[in-house]
Write a sequence for this structure.
């Protein structure tokens, strides 16, 4: 990060603090520091500096009125600084998109406070009707939402892609999460006796058991699968095997679709992708979808995975003869 | 030595104070900390303007009378938003929304800061709608009613934007392609570069244009293939799941072993193939013959692998 960049960021944050102070007039140092993600020392230093800013001739009556002691900040900054400021396109987009995304989650109130706030924002920004967010529908979402909100235990039938089995499980639902165009249910699974993330579109049947959950969600919100930089749908376990796959340009969707360990250019316009494989069934189906656009280079036990899966499916095609016209 | 942040803060206050543009000389007289020598002063000021821009503050440059010729100001309209009049519930809702959505950058938080709303504190994300570099520019063009130009599949496109749409994990721009004189949908992550907006108000959409109609629900209907009625046999292991997920399909037959025969309309055979193969050997395409044959060819290409040296070019022949 360059020094110049840092100055822009510091100014952005200082103005944010001043806008907030102009509205509340008085705030504890610790609370302000937490709210704006800075150390109390940096906050006090920046505010002391701001107290020396103002307009020429920089006599005391022309400076910003900010008093800082070790516990509290008191400021009299006037109405002007308290006004909301113009958003950059990135900020305006982020705010509108976040709000519209939450409105698109099941169970949100289309006429509630968020909808009203977004309408006001759209009106001020001239952006009405510019965004439409669809997080995907699923027949079970409403039922799952209700169970999560009310802390109700569920009995589900789940088709697991990684084991190719349909199983019945009792789960304590914690949260619904929309990732990469799919819904996931985070829950405590009594069958596995641990936390699990289920794909909602693989739930075949959902019913309440009549009991309340007995494993509540972790309070800090740090559920499994939450990588430091954000949520991820898949985290390789310690048993995963690392596969090396060579894909051509038409198979490069692989890089977007699954978490990869490395992606490197190879000869002939192809790309070497390394990925963690925790389930052979999952990997076989990935190879079926990649078809002629991928070639497994290793490890040895996975080199023939695509071929054997294709042979099994072709056998089904020979059995399932279409009706004669 | 004046702290850089102090000079920047004073600069903002001075440029905002009255609506008259000020020359650099006047600015340097009023804001402490600029070098006295001409060229060094100019460089320091240019650097400050860049920092302000990075902080999201627009400095307007405009011609003025007198020897200095160029003046600078921050227009109040560029700096302030009209009052939003958000009540406490509405403010809280916006905070929760920003905390609940993972975009991959801090723009949402910065937006709340700039509106003078409290920053969110640790909530669990409920949705991930990945931010892409092109999105802010497209959103801004939509607001301004500006035609956008971008590269797509190696071609320059000029599009009157109608809607940014998130669906199935991807962002789409729905709009009217000016050169092709037709409605089009573009995947934003597949744009070759960050879209450049033309002049505000340059975008014209035909009266009958309906951006909502442009994107159907199911992946196998998001395409421009000739519509085909495809029949599938779903094995007992996945029959209930397939029936539930393929909402537009109709059931033709339920067999004693628990398997189901379904029919559905398809305009994107590649997407159908990908969806079906995720269910492994449990679903078979019964017809029509060309779709079934294409599926068999695809699978056969996995069994009779071409030697590695032949690689890329064969794929087309296998899929057609």
């Amino acid at each position: 990060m360059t020094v110049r960049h840092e100055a822009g960021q510091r100014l952005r944050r200082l103005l944010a603090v001043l806008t907030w102070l102009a509205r509340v007039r008085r705030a504890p140092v610790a609370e302000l520091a937490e709210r704006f993600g800075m150390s109390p020392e940096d906050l006090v230093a920046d505010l002391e500096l701001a107290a020396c800013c103002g307009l020429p001739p920089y006599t005391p009556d022309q400076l910003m009125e900010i008093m800082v002691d070790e516990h509290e900040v008191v400021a009299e900054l006037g109405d002007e600084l308290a006004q909301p400021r113009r958003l950059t396109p990135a900020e305006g987009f982020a705010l509108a998109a976040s709000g519209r995304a939450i409105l698109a989650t099941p169970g949100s109130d289309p006429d509630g406070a968020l909808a009203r706030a977004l309408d006001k924002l759209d009106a001020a920004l001239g952006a009405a009707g510019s965004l439409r967010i669809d997080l995907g529908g699923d027949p079970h979402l409403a039922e799952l939402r209700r169970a999560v909100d009310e802390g109700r235990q569920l009995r589900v039938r789940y088709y697991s892609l990684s084991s190719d089995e349909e199983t019945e499980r009792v789960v304590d639902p914690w949260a619904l999460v929309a990732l990469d165009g799919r819904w996931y249910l985070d829950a405590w699974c009594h069958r596995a006796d641990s936390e699990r993330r289920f794909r909602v579109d693989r739930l075949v049947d959902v019913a309440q058991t009549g009991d309340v959950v007995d494993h509540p969600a972790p309070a800090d919100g740090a559920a499994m699968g939450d990588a430091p930089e954000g949520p991820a749908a898949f985290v390789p376990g310690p048993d995963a095997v690392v596969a090396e796959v060579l894909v051509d340009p038409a198979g490069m969707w692989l890089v977007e679709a699954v978490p990869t360990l490395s992606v490197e250019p190879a000869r002939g316009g192809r790309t070497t992708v390394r990925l963690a494989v925790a389930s052979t069934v999952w990997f076989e189906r990935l190879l079926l979808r990649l078809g002629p656009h991928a070639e497994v280079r290793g490890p040895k036990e996975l080199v023939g995975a695509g071929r054997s899966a294709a042979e099994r499916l072709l056998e089904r095609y020979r059995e399932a003869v279409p009706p004669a016209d | 030595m004046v702290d850089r942040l102090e000079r920047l803060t004073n600069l903002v206050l001075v440029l905002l104070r009255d609506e008259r543009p000020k020359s650099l000389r006047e600015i340097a007289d009023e804001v402490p900390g600029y070098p006295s020598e001409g060229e060094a002063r100019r460089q320091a000021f240019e650097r400050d303007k860049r920092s302000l821009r990075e902080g999201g503050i627009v400095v307007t440059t405009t011609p003025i009378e007198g020897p200095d010729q160029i003046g600078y100001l921050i227009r109040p309209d560029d700096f302030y938003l009209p009052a939003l009049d958000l009540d406490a519930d509405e403010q809280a809702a916006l905070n929760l929304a920003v905390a609940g959505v993972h975009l991959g950058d801090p723009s949402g938080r910065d937006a709340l800061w700039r509106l003078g709303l409290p920053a969110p504190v640790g909530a669990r994300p409920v949705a991930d709608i990945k931010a892409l570099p092109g999105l802010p520019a497209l959103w801004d063009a939509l607001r301004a009613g500006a035609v956008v130009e971008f590269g797509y599949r190696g071609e320059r496109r000029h599009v009157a934007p109608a809607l940014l749409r998130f669906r199935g994990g991807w962002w789409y721009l729905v709009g009217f392609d000016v050169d092709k004189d037709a409605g089009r949908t573009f995947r934003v992550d597949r744009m070759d570069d960050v879209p450049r907006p033309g002049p505000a108000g340059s975008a014209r959409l035909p009266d009958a244009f309906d951006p909502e109609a442009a994107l159907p629900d199911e992946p196998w209907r998001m395409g421009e293939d000739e519509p085909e009625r495809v029949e599938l046999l779903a094995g007992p292991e996945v029959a209930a799941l397939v029936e539930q997920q393929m909402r537009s399909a109709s059931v033709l037959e339920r067999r004693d072993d628990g398997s189901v025969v379904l029919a559905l309309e398809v305009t994107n055979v590649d997407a159908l193939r990908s969806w079906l193969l995720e269910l492994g050997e449990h679903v078979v395409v019964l017809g029509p013959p060309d779709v079934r044959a294409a599926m068999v060819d695809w699978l056969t290409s996995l069994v009779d692998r071409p030697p590695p040296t032949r690689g890329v070019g064969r794929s087309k022949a296998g899929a057609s």
Summary: The radius of gyration of chain B is 28 Å. DSSP finds eleven helices and 13 strands in chain B.
